[in-house]
């Protein structure tokens, strides 16, 4: 358990120093095209995805991430899983209920491949509202729903001239979720990596 606490502490430190003044996180995750399956991509990038891979295997979902059917994965990284384990006194992923792991992973998976540019443009909701203007709602393989939209950010004070950003909101958990890196493209779909501030179970 001490090792889990040590890892969480290190990632906390990394999270604190890796945020830019613009609020974006320099995660180093987004590498674009990957020659291999989604599972192989995560296995090749241990720093961010080790715990995610273990959870996928524990849930018996290897064939989903290693198969031919295209999927979109809003992926929780190691830190999201380790924080959940720390808060719940869990030492090993294998100690977690298999059905919980399966259902949780499926809540992050959408059938079909959706690159960032394919999501409709929109505008964030105001106040306590979950859904803002534009965008669209999507049902995940776990049965939960999200609202997703893209937004053209500003560049040097010019509106709409910056990069296209992707945002999602969990309609079940009523929580806005940051996308740290998007459009990671293995052979069988696309990965949009969730921010380090996301905790497993908030989707």
TrEMBL record:
Q: Which domain of life is it from?
A: Bacteria
What is the protein name given in its UniProt record? FAS1 domain-containing protein
Bilayer-crossing regions: none
Q: Tell me one Pfam family matched here.
A: Fasciclin
Which organism is this protein's natural source? Sanguibacteroides justesenii
Q: Which residues form the FAS1 domain?
A: 52-193
UniProt-listed InterPro entries: FAS1_dom_sf, FAS1_domain
Recorded hits in Gene3D superfamilies, A to Z, give: FAS1 domain
